[in-house]
TrEMBL record, chain A:
EC number: 6.5.1.8
GO molecular function: ligase activity
Cofactor(s) required for function per UniProt: Mn(2+)
Keywords: GTP-binding, Ligase, Manganese, Metal-binding, Nucleotide-binding, RNA repair
Organism of origin: Candidatus Magnetominusculus xianensis
Pfam family, one: RtcB
PROSITE patterns: UPF0027
InterPro entries attached to this UniProt entry: RtcB, RtcB-like_sf
The name this protein goes by in its record: 3'-phosphate/5'-hydroxy nucleic acid ligase
Catalyzed chemical reaction(s): a 3'-end 3'-phospho-ribonucleotide-RNA + a 5'-end dephospho-ribonucleoside-RNA + GTP = a ribonucleotidyl-ribonucleotide-RNA + GMP + diphosphate
Positions in coiled-coil regions: none
PANTHER family: RNA-SPLICING LIGASE RTCB HOMOLOG
Gene3D superfamilies listed in its UniProt record: tRNA-splicing ligase RtcB
From TrEMBL, chain B:
Enzyme class: ligase
Annotated source species: Candidatus Magnetominusculus xianensis
Keyword GTP-binding set for record: yes
Protein name: 3'-phosphate/5'-hydroxy nucleic acid ligase
Keyword Glycosyltransferase among record annotations: no
Keyword terms: GTP-binding, Ligase, Manganese, Metal-binding, Nucleotide-binding, RNA repair
Catalytic activity, EC: 6.5.1.8
One Gene Ontology MF term: ligase activity
Pfam families given in the database record: RtcB
Amino acid sequence: MGDIIRLDGNRIEVSADSKEGMLVPGIIYVDPELERHLEAQAIDQVANVATLPGIVGVSMAMPDIHTGYGFPIGGVAAFDINDGVISPGGVGYDIN
Amino acid sequence: MKDLVGVLYNSVPSGVGTKGALALSLDDERELLKKGARWAVERGFGTADDLDKTESGGCIEGADPAAVSGKALERGKNQQGTLGSGNHFLEIQYVSEIFDEAAANAFGLFKGQITVMIHTGSRGLGHQVCTDYLSTMEKAAKKYGIKLYDKELAAAPFNSPEAQQYFSAMKGAANYAWANRQVIMHQTMEAFSRALGASPRELGLRLVYDVAHNIAKVEHHTVGGTKRALVVHRKGATRAFAKGHAELPESYRHIGQPVLIPGDMGRASYVLTGTQKAMAETFGSTCHGAGRLMSRHKAIKAAKGRAIWRELEDQGVTVMTAGRTTLAEEMPEAYKDVSNVVEIVHSAGISKKVAMLKPLGVVKG
């Protein structure tokens, strides 16, 4: 997995050059204590979401992040309505 | 508490089965998918005021039942008004701490008050919609030349027919979930009423808020000074709109949107409120719960030889469950401490703590 930079007490950044194809960086809201429980696969999923066309801002995850189907659970991502995508993995099986 | 949990357990169908669900004809079900919680209110489950206190009024316009497969409809027709299994629950709690008096006042919360939290969704119907469209979207990704770094990211351009079809099916599933909680809330109020011999109104039972946490929506957000229409995906994340937003009920508009954060069944849950910082940083989103620490399998192993229900009983929490392994899978130590999770979003400023709720009785699927 690529470069993780701590931005402040509550956030880390998954830099945009840490994985091929990332269009934007990832940001995970997590403190140093919960960071110890971060799954490598979940961080990788935050980076993967950042490769999807039309992503706006950053690929985000909340502190209750864990590995999900495609997108991490705890993930937030926004895509442009004209040149972005929609992905069932970004919603999951338990809809609503 | 034991009696009350027993009455709730018998009034709200839970577990993997479908016993006790509303019997829906296919026509009923199609109408429900289009109308969401409004469908339930029209049939006497709750009141119009509940819709005012529900995200998007409990209905996303544009749901298309024709986009929902026969298999999904089949799974959904016997599960409306049921809790289901897994992490879904109905919990009796009390307000143990108030962090923000003004917000708590506006939401009608006070210290020592009894609350009920309901966590469930679109059941088998939503699960089937996801399954159906994952394969559609995988093919669509290939067709439109989207390079997938992980097959599970299957996606299609939002304006493509495949994407629009998924979106209108997903809306139907989201509406099914809103109707489901509306029906269960009504059943819960009636059960309280029977058990305590007073009307829901006399008991002061009313909806604080109903919010989704697995959904994609078209929303307008300001990005770099420009207002843009975006498809916001929240997967295990909760909408947390700031005060002043037109989507908030009038009585909360000067405070912000209530955000419900269920924790594990032993420790606590929270009510938060949305902030301007969330609007600026996270498209108006925050966390959704404690987050698992152990896989279900690992939790079952860790619970071997223990009586989880008794451990909870000793902490003052009465639990009733339908599933054999549910309590092991869902035991408190299988989750992160929700207080740690909430502390981060609070201190990052993307939502603010309003109240802490402690569990007293739990119905688990």
